[in-house]
Design brief:
eight-stranded parallel beta sheet, 12% strand, TIM Barrel, 2 domains, alpha/beta
């Protein structure tokens, strides 16, 4: 969400891949807003930076746009009116809290409903996919997962090391992969291998496909990527039993290259129409919304 800060108008700025105009154009009913802190920011400044992003979300997104409603508990989704768009906060990596669980509780009280223990590097909770050591969760990381379970908050595996993934599978009540594709189709380190996908299905956990060219085809950063290239990831997930576990995790405003025809929230219906050419209407309704609604923590 840090890209949104500054003088950009959430209502209709073309520099924002997610803005109010585009959410309406794409018929998006619920949108996650991720809090991300650059790892290069000094550790003693990171928590303040998180609070700044929350303040921006509350003051510039929520307060100025009555149609956008913050979801602070999962049941709020069911209270949305026809003309309202739900939104909720997520946290991409817990580096900002240091070793202070009170800071985590503060952020959860502010409405964060999904937490990834790491971004790509390691921190005090776990190793991310970019840490060569490839370790799993630390004692502190397991304590965080326990708190997330108690608060009915998702534990996101999309940036975790492989060992961290398996640790979460054993201990999290509400695991989710918020933005990952299929490793066997594109060898990006953040995509899920087939054993991981099968484990997610066994746990009945959501897997949200990411709209990022580099996660979709090999060398996607330097070659044209179309929606037709993303469809095989959905097909493979279905083949592995995940038809009721697939959702959308665009990563808009967090990516720098784009799938043709799927470059911002306003083009979401292009993806849905392409899915309808391959899957049943009921299956696509699941991918677009119903699967997620059926897997909200209770």
């Amino acid at each position: 969400m840090q890209v949104n800060q500054g003088n950009l108008d959430f209502k209709d700025s073309n520099q924002l891949e997610v803005n109010l105009k585009r959410l309406k154009e794409g018929k998006v009913k619920v949108q996650a807003f991720a809090i991300f802190i650059e790892p290069s920011l000094p550790s003693d400044q990171q928590f303040a930076a998180v609070l700044e992003q929350i303040s921006f979300y509350q003051n510039d997104v929520i307060a100025k746009h009555p149609e956008i409603k913050q979801i602070k508990k999962w049941s709020d989704i069911h209270e949305l009116k026809e003309n309202e768009i739900g939104s909720f906060l997520t946290l991409e990596g817990v580096s900002s809290i240091g070793n202070d669980l009170d800071k985590l509780e503060y952020l959860l009280d502010a409405g964060i409903l999904s937490v990834g223990l790491t971004w790509n590097p390691a921190n005090l909770a776990a190793d991310g996919v970019g840490e060569p050591r490839g370790g799993g969760l630390t004692t502190f990381g397991f304590e965080i997962v326990k708190r997330l379970n108690e608060r009915k908050v998702f534990t996101d595996v999309s940036h975790l090391s492989v060992q961290g993934f398996w640790d979460v599978m054993k201990h999290a009540n509400y695991p989710i992969a918020t933005h990952s594709n299929v490793l066997s189709l594109c060898s990006h380190v953040r995509n899920l291998n087939e054993d991981q996908i099968k484990a997610m299905v066994e746990r009945d956990a959501m897997i949200h496909v990411i709209f990022n060219p580099t996660f979709t085809i090999e060398d996607g950063e330097n070659n044209p990527v179309t929606i037709a290239d993303l469809i095989p990831h959905v097909e493979r997930l279905v083949e592995l039993g995940a038809v009721n576990n697939i959702g959308f995790g665009s990563d808009f405003d967090g990516i720098s290259t784009y799938i043709e025809g799927l470059s911002h929230a306003g083009e979401t219906q292009n993806f849905i129409q392409a899915l309808l050419e391959r899957f049943t209407e009921e299956e696509v309704q699941g991918f677009a919304s119903k699967n997620f609604l059926n897997h909200l923590p209770k």
